[in-house]
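ok posting inputs for the N-(aminocarbonyl)-beta-alanine job
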Amino acid sequence: EIDADRLWADIEALAAITDPDRPYTRRSFSARFLEGRDWLIRAFEAEGLACRIDAAGNLIGRLEGTEAAAADPGVLMTGSHSDTVPDGGRFDGIGGVLAGLAAIRAMRAAGYTPRHTIELVDFLAEEPSEWGLSCVGSRGMAGALGEKELALTGPGGETLADAIDRIGGNVAELKSARRDDITGFVELHIEQGPVLEAEGIALGVVTGIAGISRVKLAFEGEAGHAGTTLMSMRADASMALARFQLRMRDAAVAAAAAGRGHFVATIGVVNILPGGANVVPGRTEAIIDIRAEDTALMNEQVELYRQFGEAAAEMEGCRLKSFERISNVAPAACAPGLRAAISQAAGERQVSTRDLASGAGHDTVFLSQVAPAAMIFVPSRKGQSHCPEEWTDPAQMAQGATCLLDTLLLADKA
Amino acid sequence: EIDADRLWADIEALAAITDPDRPYTRRSFSARFLEGRDWLIRAFEAEGLACRIDAAGNLIGRLEGTEAAAADPGVLMTGSHSDTVPDGGRFDGIGGVLAGLAAIRAMRAAGYTPRHTIELVDFLAEEPSEWGLSCVGSRGMAGALGEKELALTGPGGETLADAIDRIGGNVAELKSARRDDITGFVELHIEQGPVLEAEGIALGVVTGIAGISRVKLAFEGEAGHAGTTLMSMRADASMALARFQLRMRDAAVAAAAAGRGHFVATIGVVNILPGGANVVPGRTEAIIDIRAEDTALMNEQVELYRQFGEAAAEMEGCRLKSFERISNVAPAACAPGLRAAISQAAGERQVSTRDLASGAGHDTVFLSQVAPAAMIFVPSRKGQSHCPEEWTDPAQMAQGATCLLDTLLLADKA
Ligand SMILES: NC(=O)NCCC(=O)O
Ligand SMILES: NC(=O)NCCC(=O)O
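and the output
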């Protein structure tokens, strides 16, 4: 049985390891992040896990299985990430690492030694960081960290490669982080959305994770003095962007209602240049974040947005200077066998579940490229995440950890 | 006669005093700005001007008039400012200071000693600076620098008061900067707009300067995860702002065409918060810059924009969190006597002129509160200003300086 009080105490201990003026923040690669990892290493070792940092910078605690030496059945892996976005939440990521720790603690308390070797992992830099890439560690495990990604630069011009080495990875040996020995991966995570709470359901069985595309676009008009440039003579790049925003949103609302799975599109980053109160904007830049379970719908919408960009620019006497797909992660399906195990585990304890898609990206996306992988969601109060108000009740966390434990036990027997 | 070559050489000398990586930039209160002032002090002194920095931080060069001791007819003042916006132009401000210097040089070369004492001034910080206030020095001369303005803070938390003292002013004695002895002020400036060039006219006789209001507004919606917050559940503060921008612009176009004088409204500063690519914007802030010759039109439009803000917020499920008039400078009329002198001076040399309003703010606005004041505009190529491309031909500058000289001579005789 999961020790619910101990799990909650661990969550509070990690919440206390934060930038003091910005709770709850542990940015990947920062000193605060490494402080959190030190805590994790001590806690992993206290449960008998052998700790290492793999070449991609993931922290891995290993419990040797009874059959590891003989007819090795492969590794059962669980875990999530301990880094956060700025202001970023007591549960997002770390909840899954600590639920995994609670599951292993329960096995040890019950004197259960698993058949499979079990690994508990804290993936490096799941959240978008100052290096502009998310899921760094899980990409490494999937062999999806290439030259281009490693050359990205962060604060002070440090490359991602150097940053990985700095926190204990070994980019020269990156191939060694690539895994083909994982027989199953299960990640517990908060939903970060409103569905489970709204429907009063305890756990989500994730069917798949929406693909994510990012598009960067720029409009170019003509900068001018705000006092002397007559209204009739303007090519105001911010008006082209405003037109574009409204039209893109209307199309995204229609796409979401089209019955083709989860779909959302968001503009969260906007740059108005030169950005003076008395200067007519000559250039605007924006990033669109688009998520879809259906790749065809994703591509149709991106093409539509390009057309909207051209049209908005023309109506405002501006130019669509660039429209570039800067990143693209394909949607991932969760493994049917593990999904069934999660449902069965919950059912045996009379805990309610429902299938749902994840609109948020997760390390599971990359693990699913090299192993059967699945996710358990616990409810998020008001669907809030990536903010200090992010919340899941202690009992809900314990229910999730119990389901994770039972799923690992089912998988160990399979 | 104006020494046109010497005037142009002076303009080039000042253009060379710039932040090397951002031509042409001399931000007020910066080391570069003080370097420019050192050049000006040496040049003023070379023409026999006695230099001082007044309590408000203005550099003043003084040529004693023949009647200064006896029945003092008051001071004739000319000048402009030597600070720039970032990337900001070889002519904006400094052209008027150097044209004034060229006029005094011409008087001396002709052996002319004026009846009035003549003062040549480089006003402190005309452009909006990191302290958020424009026309700092001319406000000081008009007694319009109060506690509120002096308490504004800039880089490193330095107050405006401390910054003025640092560059040679004396805020403790600020009252001494207030002037009531000026019998006439004439400022030469580039038009910063397209009218003179478009109509092939040499000089503008400024009728008045539009009033400037700044409104700061904020929309509040609900921040959320871009992947999990369904399109149907969003309160995206950036959509409220986009709606507002388009509607405000349409109203401003109509107001400009209403035949009630110069009117423009601009949003040059936008802030999207929290500003993450994967976060639905929960808050947006913007600054509106509104200019009108007609104060009633200004007030009607501001009220209309407030209504648009409320309506846009409501349509997007957001709130208009604030809508605040953060600054207001009333329109200023130029003095009829000096306007007539400028027209007469140009007419006597068969130089074409036209009356026009200034959409840009100028130190003349504040001088007009304590003295008869007027402005001469020289053409701006393509109307461009506040950018490295800002340009006025050498011959056009010389024509302007000649008109300034002739206007000062007419005023000296009056
Ligand atoms: N789960 C999560 O918040 N991942 C961060 C990447 C994203 O989905 O934007
Ligand atoms: N002339 C000029 O550019 N003044 C700066 C203040 C403004 O008009 O925005």
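notes: The longest helix of chain A spans residues 295-315. Chain A has twelve helices and 15 strands.
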